[in-house]
Amino acid sequence: MARPTCIECGKPLNVCLCRFVLQLEHTVPITIIQHPAEAKHPKNSVALLWRSLTHCRVVAGERPDDLLGEIGARYPERSLALLYPETPDQPAPPSAPQRTTDIHLLVLDGTWRKTRRMLYENPTTAALPRLQLRSPQCGRYRIRKASDPHQLSTLEACALAIAQLEPQFDAARLLKAFDDWQAHLLEQRG
Description:
Layout: E1 30-34, H1 36-39, H2 46-52, E2 56-60, H3 64-74, E3 79-83, E4 103-109, H4 112-120, H5 123-126, H6 154-165, H7 171-189
Parallel strand pairs: 1-2, 1-4, 3-4
Helix pairs in contact: 6-7
């Protein structure tokens, strides 16, 4: 027998995230290309992120290069910038502009292994200008493991990127909702 699920978030009722969803205004549009396997993962942070941001969209796929034309057409006056750390085995891409009116942020979502593969198999995406976080923090993701303490969840990285581009953005509020959601999941797990 299937467990009852929330009609809003689609998650089982005991781990429903709706009470943690915020409505946060920002101006930089964000498109998240989510690996199909990640969409089904019960602990993915994007489920809370895209419901909390006013200008955030999620597209499923493993081939970002195939989606760039459609994604860029949504905001033709803005340049796509990839939010992804530099990788030592690839040439350094150009830096993204830092003005909020110029950027449409593109984010790859999945495990680190899957997003690296998405990046390596999509040279046009890999060559996009990158937005580097000026003051990266240690990750707060307690319900999933990272191999490096500075690896951030998609929610954390997006919150910090928006705050970097839009200083008035309340990243702390979004990060607190993230912490509270994780605490709820851990409580449910026992």
